[in-house]
Amino acid sequence: MTNSASEEGTPADCLTGSLIIDAVKKSGVNTILTVPDKTTSEGLLRPIAADEELRHIRVCKEDETVGISAAMSYSGQRTLILIQYTGLLDSMNAIRAIGCEYQMPICMMVGLLSKEPGVAPTESKRFGIRIVEPILDTMNIDRHLIETDDDIGLITPAINKCYETSSPVAMLIGRPPLAA
Amino acid sequence: MMKRDDCLKSLAGKIAQDEIVVAAYTTAFEWIAIRPSPCNYISSGAMGMTSSHALGFALAWPDRRIILLDGDGSLLMNLGCLVTTANAAPKNLIHFVLENGTYEANGGHPIPGQNSASFAGMAESAGYNNCHELSDLESFEDNIGSILQEEGPTFVTLKCVPGEDYPQDYRHMHSAKLREDFAEAVKNF
């Protein structure tokens, strides 16, 4: 389930926020549900909040985004959830029930706060980072590591698959995207 | 204090058959017996998520009134939704909380703050457009017509006690068929 283009050969050392947002828009997402995350704060959240093409809904707690997103999917609208990995962990019961058991399209972009760039999440010194991928695998949730610009090509297909197969996906942001 | 099913029967007579009603747990079982409709959504999956689903429906279909029948225990598990909803400010959302003071679906144990916490007060502080608290059927019937016409988000605490017993089929609540029927009912909304 893991995909990372950078692991296959063409590593780059930057991740560009505007390219991520373009890839999200290309998938047909028009609403972004967010709880702030320091990793994605400048490169994604601020540009998204200022983007007139996107509807931005600020949410108090991450599990709310799961219910909101599931409900909106019945109208055919695509949403992206932008949260921190701690919020992902906190939302596991909602994701378990709504995403996994109900098979709803829950599309998540998750900042791996303080993950060391270039280090696999499972090799991080931080316990919270190390457990993210194993938990997602246990729940059979598709995941993609987005660490460099070479990985951005994974985003649009991942979102499309999430909605076409009505299943959850987590795109893990491995370093702070540049605000460009 | 009014009986919950009497209140729900009265409400059912005031809304259209194709209105989306999102309901939580014990209230959900009573509601689907009182007003059967594929536009009932009772598949919130996890306790507390009913209010978030209702907000999602309200955002998705801003021209349709969305009615949320929340529980007090459910709301306590997702209190942040009050601020999220008030901030998103859906004009088409009416958030009822049927307050019986217990986690009824979990054994009937008292909620923290039973008889002291004010849900309508919390909603007002969060920024809901209109907040009400009703505890007897006569007041409900006198006011529900105008409440349903208010520009939302509107919050209504309904202080109530359980009424008659209704079937509680959790397999039905969680069934894929139920969600498929809902999807079919709303596909042209």
List its traits.
heterodimer; A: Rossmann fold; B: 189 residues; alpha/beta; Rossmann fold; seven-stranded parallel sheet; two-stranded antiparallel sheet; 9 helices; 41% helix
Map the helices and strands.
The complex is a heterodimer of chains A (180) and B (189).
Chain A: H1 17-26, E1 29-34, H2 41-50, E2 55-58, H3 62-73, E3 78-84, H4 85-90, H5 92-101, E4 107-111, H6 127-130, H7 132-138, E5 142-146, H8 155-165, E6 169-173
Parallel strand pairs in A: 1-2, 1-3, 3-4, 4-6, 5-6
Helix pairs in contact in A: 1-2, 3-5
Chain B: E1 2-3, H1 4-12, E2 20-23, H2 25-34, E3 40-41, H3 50-60, E4 66-71, H4 72-76, H5 80-88, E5 93-99, E6 102-103, E7 109-110, H6 119-126, E8 130-134, H7 137-147, E9 154-161, H8 170-173, H9 176-186
Parallel strand pairs in B: 1-9, 2-3, 2-4, 4-5, 5-9, 8-9
Antiparallel strand pairs in B: 6-7
Helix pairs in contact in B: 1-2, 1-7
Mean pLDDT of chain A: 94
Q: In the CATH hierarchy, what is the superfamily of chain B?
A: Thiamin diphosphate (ThDP)-binding fold, Pyr/PP domains
Low-pLDDT regions of chain A: 5-11
Number of helices of chain B: 9
The best one-word shape of chain B is: globular
**SS-based class of chain B:** alpha/beta
Number of helices of chain A: 8
CATH topology name of chain A = Rossmann fold
Number of structurally distinct domains of chain B: 1
Cα shape of chain A:
globular
What is the highest CATH level, the class of chain A?
A: Alpha Beta
Q: What proportion strand of chain B?
A: 15-25%
